[in-house]
Design a protein that fits this description.
By secondary structure, the protein is of the alpha+beta class. Helix content is about 25%, strand content about 20%.
């Protein structure tokens, strides 16, 4: 189950209300789908990290700042399923960084291969063993 949240800097509601809503929804999901993995991510702005953790039981997985030196964008999970979590520059125009969480081996691989140099004599030996192609040209211009 994935939830996205945007808590604006000047919210029209009390922080207590959104925290109670998060708590109620996480409990409902856990009751209805006990085997599900819950992910809650978004821009939490000034919403206290400790309160989200205490009320929801979810674990934060982002430990780096995402806007300047502030931790505004966060990801909370019910179970640790990610081998790596990185904060990277966003590909869209934004002053917020992007969060990338993934499991398994990284997709980038580097392979070093050594190639043998071929000497002129090796090429000559190869060409001696190749049977030349024979083309017959018809007088009407066809091959």
């Amino acid at each position: 189950m994935v939830g996205a949240l945007y808590h604006p800097p000047a919210a029209q509601y009390q922080a207590f209300d959104i925290l109670a809503h998060i708590e109620a929804n996480v409990l409902q999901i856990q009751n209805d789908f006990p085997e599900s993995h819950i992910i809650l991510a978004g821009d939490f702005n000034s919403l206290p990290d400790t309160e989200v953790v205490i009320r929801s039981g979810l674990m934060p997985i982002v430990s780096q700042p995402t806007r300047g030196n502030r931790h505004l964008d966060r990801v909370y999970v019910s179970d640790i399923h990610y081998d790596s979590v990185k904060v990277v520059r966003s590909i869209v125009k934004s002053d917020h960084m992007a969060i990338v969480a993934y499991s398994g081996l990284p997709k980038k691989t580097r392979t070093k291969r050594t190639f043998r140099k071929h000497m002129a004599e090796q090429h000559a030996r190869f060409l001696r063993g190749v049977t030349p192609a024979v083309y017959t040209i018809n007088p009407d211009g066809g091959v």
